[in-house]
Amino acid sequence: MNVPACPPSRIHGDIAARGARIDFSVNVATSTPSWLIDALNSEIANLAAYPDADRLAAAEELIAEYHGVPPDYVMLLAGAAEGFVLLPHLPITHPTIIHPGFSEPDIIFTDAGRPVDRVILPEPFNVLPSISDDADLVVIGNPTNPTGVLWRPDDLLGLDDGRRFVVVDEAFIDVVGEEHSVIPQVPTHPRLIVLRSLTKTWAIAGLRVGYMVADPDIVLGPLRRWRPHWPIGTLQIAAAEAVFTHGVTTLPEHRSQLLADREAMLRQLATVGWLPVSDSRAPFVLVRPGDLSPDQARTRYRKLMARGIALRRCDTFPGLGWNYFRLAVRKKPQVDSLITALKE
């Protein structure tokens, strides 16, 4: 349904997480794998040289091979956020953002002078709405941040009317399962754009690495013209190489561990009445803080922050408010500390 909503904000989880003793605010793994650190350390001595364009192309080919698409369909990015920044350079005038969702594309299109149609989903946020015929680009997350809702690929492909661009933010889908990705459908859907992140699962948010999968003529070619001559650094290329030669082999273990940790965390939260409002399949959950009013929830948030426990406030997401919190999935000791604080 199309309803008025508060504008999105650039208050992201990293702001609350700075200096926190226990961080539930940022959806990034808590430690960088040793094999990835080793790969990055091995490149430090090479930083005097400019990034190698052939090596960048080889890394993109490695990613393409993993997904089963042609190499020219992949563009390595300085984080998936760079991909969103590039999108206003496409020939669009009426972007639509499905909310609650990641706020950056909404802000980026607005700043670029493209008025955004915000489509707000009601709880439990799992029914796709009809989209206006005027929409020439639609953005949706899969799984969606902050709800964690996972959409069926066929449902997402149904947004493609052959005329509009459909942008699917798959920043967290690697820990859910590649069978849920629409990347294999990109070669047959020339206006389908998929954005992926390497910073979440592999705990390298400070390095900024992601990639876009899209048609090379309709999307990637035009967007490449707006990038600098050396768009990706040597360490970013090395990180991509390491992830797609070794990291992807460890994903089955990551997925099973996430499932166990998420279920355990939800059981713990239920003991204090903090219950999920959506069926999250992501490394985070969206909950209501018991029977607290929005003002009481804001006060509780500030008290937790004072104790060094960071949660993700949700008043910055269109369609949500202070009566919701997003919590990154964490291990039992961290959740125990949160539960103890909530009981006091």
UniProtKB/TrEMBL annotation:
Xref: CDD domains: AAT_like (cd00609)
Enzyme nomenclature, EC number: 2.6.1.-
Cofactor(s) for this UniProt protein: pyridoxal 5'-phosphate
Keywords, ordered alphabetically: Aminotransferase, Pyridoxal phosphate, Transferase
Keyword match Transferase: yes
Gene3D superfamilies, sorted: Aspartate Aminotransferase, domain 1, Type I PLP-dependent aspartate aminotransferase-like (Major domain)
Enzyme class: transferase
GO MF entries: pyridoxal phosphate binding; transaminase activity
Entry coiled-coil feature ranges: none
The keyword Transferase is assigned to this record: yes
Domain of life: Bacteria
Residues covered by the Aminotransferase class I/classII large domain: 39-342
Family: Belongs to the class-I pyridoxal-phosphate-dependent aminotransferase family.
Stored NCBIfam families: PRK07908.1
Name assigned to this protein: Aminotransferase
Organism name: Corynebacterium matruchotii ATCC 33806
